[in-house]
Amino acid sequence: MKLDGLDTPSVLVEVDIMTANLDRLAGYCREHRLNLRPHVKTHKIPELAQLQVRKGAVGVTVAKLGEAEVMVDGGIEDVLLAYPVYGEIKWERLVSLARRARISVALDSLEVAQGISRHAREAGVRIPILVEFDTGMRRCGLAIARESIGVLERIVELPALDYEGLLIYPGHFLVDPERRNQLLTLENRQLSTLLGLLDDARIPYPVISASSTPTAYMSHQFDNINEVRPGTYIFNDRNTIGCQAAGLEDCAVSVLSTVVSTSVPGKAAIDGGSKTFSSDKFLSGDGVGFGHVMGDPGAVVEYLSEEHGHLVLANAIRRYRVGDRVRVIPNHVCACVNMHNRIYGIRDDEVVTEWRVSARGAVQ
Ligand SMILES: Cc1ncc(COP(=O)(O)O)c(C=O)c1O
């Protein structure tokens, strides 16, 4: 099918750019002997997770148990759930999934560890765990302090858990390259303190899992890490471009939209809004706008109503007519893809494949 035959709004993925993104990072990880465990919350598509595994990933990362279930249903055999899960219902689901695939979990509290341990023991399964430490993101993770080592020691002793090492998330590196380099120095200082505390307590750390898309190609500069979990890198987005972790030419994703109104002078309305793009902001740039209009950087996607986007054309370099089609790179691709049942792989103006976003809405 030609692109012209596709209804709008539709999420497009340039297959050759996506493939190049996957190959480049897989090559980098091979070169630096890093295990690659991509975060699949970006695409939520088991077929793309399979592709990542075929290209050398050791397994995948998810944020939610529901995503893990979809990935295992789709044939993925090794999943890291990189966020703590709490509650009887979750722990039941977790141990039942652990009978079908290798599911490891990152956690940072005794409460979560005890719950998983109890359920795993009753079910007769073992759950590999990573313990998260906070190296600066201030989101989750034990503080790097002697008291935390006491918590870790108690976690390690719990039955039916296999402690494998540490997880950190440098999500605060969505900043310009100079600032990223400054943060790297701080990060390595934090890591060194943490590993010193663990060495003193004679606690090993066979796995140190880290990384994000902005830090993906700096991973070899993070001392001692041996596993990386970028997600966005498969497609990239406006935020990745804004922090210069990728160029426009590395961005595989855009949303094909149709201009539906130009009646207001200096403006155009397109048929995709917050329920198409998500309302996520341009965090890595000047904060202005909800997407990058391909071929016309002066056109500003000024605001989004639920189903429509509103372009301000004062600095646009082209004219917009009702019926024109535009392609807009979303600020945050993970949230955007999650809005769609299907996304479309394209090569030039040909639609070459489509994927069902099987884990969309799998928020439990
Ligand atoms: C724990 C964890 N690891 C890895 C990632 C992937 O980071 P990025 O979206 O920058 O690729 C995320 C993203 O939210 C995350 O939460």
Shape: globular
* Portion in helices: 25-40%
- By CATH, the architecture of the largest domain is named Alpha-Beta Barrel
Tally of domains: 2
Summarize the structure in words.
- This protein has 364 residues and is an alpha/beta fold.
- The protein has two domains: 122 residues, D-serine dehydratase-like domain (Lyase, Ornithine Decarboxylase, Chain A, domain 1), CATH 2.40.37; 218 residues, TIM Barrel.
- The chain has ten helices and 17 strands.
- The strands form two sheets. Strands 1, 10, 11, 12, 13, 14, 15, 16 and 17 form a nine-stranded mixed beta sheet that branches.
- Strand 6, helix 6 and strand 7 form a beta-alpha-beta unit.
- Helix 3 packs parallel to helix 4.
- The chain is globular and about 70 Å long.
- It starts with 9 loop residues before the first strand and ends in an 8-residue tail after the last strand.
- The site of pyridoxal-5'-phosphate has 13 residues, from loops.
